[in-house]
Amino acid sequence: MYPGSHGRDDAADLAPFVPTPRPVVERMLEIAAVGPEDVVYDVGCGDGRMVITAAKTFRARGVGIDIDAALIEECRAGAKREGVEKLVRFLLMDATKARLTGATVLALYLLPESLETLEPAFERDLRPGVRIVSHDYMIPGWDGRLVRSEVVTDESGREHKIHLYRMPVTK
């Protein structure tokens, strides 16, 4: 696990807050084919840009989960500023304790060891057909569920990998 930056001893810190560049956010949502019927969950949502963009651009509903209270407040303010506060919710909680059962799309930007930690929750909670889109890191052991990978270049010229997975129809 990433050394705790949120100052709490009762919750796992799965990754440092590093914002996903906006072109990568948009491409992740496009690759996952997000639409108005979707509910996009973002585990470790940071400033909420994934969920807010899903709501504003694709009219999807969304749920962001983060352990950092200041970031959750920033998410809520951002949703209100963008006029999507009725489409999104932001939960201050330990992602390892979160239930993901409502997700049709799961967005992730977590370190490989954190993805491995959360994998049992993915298996438990995600329904058949759910799309999982991961920024930069592949989910360990999920090669058979990988639908596609692609590289996106941000404004600074840095390349980012996007991996799309789909939960199997039968578990």
CATH homology-level superfamily: Vaccinia Virus protein VP39
Structurally, how many domains make up the residues? 1
Strand content: 15-25%
Helical/strand content category: alpha/beta
Helix share, percent? 25-40%
- Strand ordering within the main sheet: 3-2-1-4-5-7-6
What is the H/E order? HEHEHEEHEEE
CATH class: Alpha Beta
Gyration radius, in Å: 15 Å
CATH topology: Rossmann fold
List low-confidence stretches.
Answer: 1-11
Strand elements, count: 7
Distance linking N and C termini: 28 Å
CATH architecture: 3-Layer(aba) Sandwich
Count of helical regions: 4
- Can you summarize the main beta sheet? 7 strands, mixed
Mean pLDDT: 92
Shape, per Cα inertia axes = globular
Q: What does it look like?
A:
By secondary structure, the chain is an alpha/beta fold. It has a single domain (22-93, 103-166), classed as Vaccinia Virus protein VP39 (Rossmann fold, 3-Layer(aba) Sandwich). 27% of the residues lie in helices and 24% in strands. The protein is built from four helices and seven strands. A seven-stranded mixed sheet has the order 3-2-1-4-5-7-6, with helices on one face. β2 (61-66), α3 (69-81) and β3 form a beta-alpha-beta unit. α1 packs across α2 (49-58). The longest helix has 14 residues, at 112-125. The protein is globular. The relative contact order is 0.18. The model is unreliable at 1-11 (pLDDT under 50).
Short description:
The chain is α/β, with parallel strands linked by helices.
Features:
Rossmann fold; disordered N terminus; 171 residues; seven-stranded mixed β-sheet; globular; 7 strands; alpha/beta; single chain
